[in-house]
């Protein structure tokens, strides 16, 4: 419940800051992409850059998560193998050293 309130409050704060930023920056900016020059308003350019940064962060996080999932799969396979080995060793008869 508290987490939902916090997320809602954060979304409202971000929205208010976005509106404030948009109203204070009505100008335009030229973005040179080396193959094309795009003219856009400052808030749209920031929004585009924000979305591109979010997508890049999501891609990086996905790579990290895939590595963790692969490591987890390998560890589970090793654990199953080790458990079967321990189980087979427990079933061996005891041999006296005498």
Structure, explained:
There is one protein chain. The longest helix is centred in the last third of the chain and has 49 residues. This protein is mainly α and 98 residues long. The chain has one domain. The mean pLDDT is 89. Strands 1-2 form a two-stranded antiparallel ribbon. It is built from two helices and two strands, in the order αββα.
Could you outline the blueprint of secondary structure elements for this entry?
Layout: H1 2-24, E1 28-32, E2 37-41, H2 42-90
Antiparallel strand pairs: 1-2
List keywords for this structure.
98 residues; mainly alpha; 2 helices; 73% helix
Short description:
With 98 residues, the protein is mainly α.
Q: Give the C-alpha Rg.
A: 28 Å
Model regions low in confidence, pLDDT < 50 over at least 5 residues? none
Compute the number of strand runs.
2
The mean pLDDT is 89
Structural class: mainly alpha
Alpha carbon gap, first and last residue: 68 Å
Name the overall outline.
Answer: elongated
Taking the sheet with the most strands, its summary is: 2 strands, antiparallel
Sheet with most strands: strand arrangement: 1-2
Q: What percent of residues are in strands?
A: 5-15%
**H/E topology pattern:** HEEH
What is the total number of structural domains? 1
Oligomeric state of the chains present here: single chain
Question: What is the tally of helical segments?
Answer: 2
Task: Give the proportion of residues in helices.
Answer: over 70%
């Amino acid at each position: 419940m508290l987490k939902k309130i916090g997320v809602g409050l954060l979304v409202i704060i971000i929205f208010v800051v976005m509106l404030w930023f948009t109203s204070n920056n009505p100008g335009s900016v030229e973005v040179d992409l080396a193959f094309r020059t795009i003219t856009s308003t400052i808030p749209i350019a920031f929004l585009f850059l924000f979305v591109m940064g979010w997508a890049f962060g999501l891609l990086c996080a996905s790579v990290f998560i895939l590595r963790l999932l692969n490591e987890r799969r390998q560890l589970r396979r090793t654990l199953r193998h080790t458990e079967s080995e321990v189980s087979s060793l427990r079933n061996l008869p005891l041999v006296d050293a005498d």
